[in-house]
Amino acid sequence: TALALIANLAACAHTSVTKQPRQGIAWVDSAAEYDALTLQTYQNASRVLDALILDKSATALPAQTGMAELPPAIILDVDETTVSNVDFQIHIDGSFSHEAFDYWQLNNPARRIMGAPEFIQAARDKGVTVFFITNRPCHERDFAPGSCPQEAITLQDLAEAGIETDAEHLMLVGEQAEWNREKRLRQQLVGRDYRVIMLFGDDLGDFLPCIRAKPIAPCPAATTEYRKQMTLEYSDYWGLRWQILPNPMHGSWTNFISEDGG
Question: What is the pairing mode between strands 170-173 and 83-84?
C-alpha cells in the first residue's frame, strides 16, 4: 500500500530521519486557534499591503538598496506557510524523510493554509509579483521523472492549495548549484529585479540567515541567545514586512529544545 511504501521509505532513507512533536501535529490538525492565527497573519498582511507598495523605500530585505524604481514583489515559503503538510505528518507517525515526503506529496492532495490564497490573489491584483522560496531539495526519485521532480510536485501542491504559479517563480534547494538551505542568496536574487516588500514563513530561517544549530557554511552554529537577539534586533519588521506563521510541528527551533522541554 501507499502507506507501507511511505513507512519503508522513511525507515531506509539515506537522509536523516527526525522525530516530530506529536502534540504540535495534533494542534495544527484540529485546533480552530491554528486557523485563526493563519487568517490573522494574512489579513494583517492585507491591511499593510497598500502602504508598502506606495512607500518606495520599504523593503523586507535589510541589505537591499537602490530599489525605489523596482516593481514590488513578495516572497513566501511553501511548507506550513502556503501549503499545510499536517496530513503527511500524521500518517508517518512523527518520522520524517525527504523520500517519504516526496512520495506522499506526489500521491495525495495538499491542504491549504487558511488566508494564503486570498492574500496572494489580492497582492497580484495590485501588481505585486509573487515568488516562492522553499527548502524542499532537488533529488532524483524512482517514482517521479526528472533531475528535480520536487519542482513539479511543489507546483502541484500549490495548485491543490488554491495557488497557481510557475517554475520561474519557484526556487528550490539545489535547483542551482549555489542554492543551499540558507535562503538569503535566493532572496537577494529576487531583490536584483524587484523591491521585496514582504517575506512570509514559519521558521526564523525564512527571514534571517545563520540561525541554525546545524550550520551551513559560511555560517557558524547559532545559539538560543543569538536567535533571540536577532529576532529583537529586527523587531520593527515583524507584523509589517515580515509575517510569520505558527509551526509547532517541525523547524530549526526543534534543535534548541531540550529533551525535558526546558
Answer: unpaired
